[in-house]
Amino acid sequence: MTRIQLSRAVLAALGIVAGMAAAGAPVRAAESIRVGEVNSYSALPAFTEPYRKGWQLALDEVNAAGGVLGRPLEFVSRDDAGKPADALNAVNELVTREEVALVAGTFFSHVGLAVADYAARREVFFLAAEPLTDALVWSKGNDVTFRLRPSNHMQAAMLAEEAAKLPAKRWATIAPNYEYGQSAVAEFRKLLSEKRPDIEWVAEQWPPQGKIDAGPVVQAIAAAGPEAILNVTFGPDLVKLVREGTTRGLFKDRSVVSFLTGEPEYLDPLGAEAPEGWIVTGYPWYAIDTPEHKAFLEAYQARWNDHPRLGSIVGYVTVKSIAAIIARAKSTDTAALVEAAKGVTVDTPFGPITYRAADHQSTLGAFVGRTAVVDGKGRMVDAVYRNGADYLPAEADAAKLRPGG
Fold it and tell me: What predicted TM-score, i.e. pTM, was given to this entire model?
């Protein structure tokens, strides 16, 4: 073939491609919408691995249904190791090098706050999946940050409602000494004291997160002689506290109210050692009889050959929320995403939720019940779902809690 013939062949080929484009024929696959996702995978795998399975399942479902805006949704995931500095490095790489359209995830409250601050400075939409501190959407809230999980205030209000019914007047608290634990204790104490002015707070222990020395903690609480205990520890710290407290008789004839302990990721490891009768928030996946949850449970078990944990729900609903927000925005522009997220409704395995316009908090609720040992396994019994909307201040009041409110 001569050069002239080659040139003519190239031009002909270009003409065919141009014609296809003009006719609307696909030349290549639609470009994906990339979402930057960061979480504490190596620091707390008990929660974050089920969380990852949850978002992978939802991602499969979204893309099998055609994606969002005719484009597949893609997660670009990073491990923050439970450290704010690592999270910021990861998010910065996702935004500047991976060119993600938005950011989602995080577990620990201090990590979530750091990422929210970055998102505000860089004007990047951030959907915080798990961090529970109220500061995230109230005192340190910003325009681009929204939160999925029911906050410390919401869960404290649910638990205080039950705790107020107890005859106990002398209370002690045990909580990890960082943003989440401090916020949870402050909210519970405030709300319970409002309901029961006769309450006396007689002791508090603040072990470092992930490094509890349970013996001295149990001894100090027992020495104060409380009639009831608020526990906010979770994960391996909870296991150590339960074992040491049971051995030393700390929980005998005392009421215990405990954040998160009914979640399978924390209750399952205790097995037959699980405490009985604690008032807890959690996720009794084996006892939820609704069509929405049955569909999720069947899909999750078929995909992973395992039962879900609460992290599974959080990961799943994170993706469903992102898809709903982008679809409503009809764009991945940050300003459009923010406006679309205000008031958006999302279907979840717990029923529909809404992200409130005033404070960017979702109305996802939690189950409240008591711990028990059933067939040698830790279980949550007598559980009732509490709608998150019922435990939030009115939107006008919530708006006043935010900067400039």
Answer: 0.92
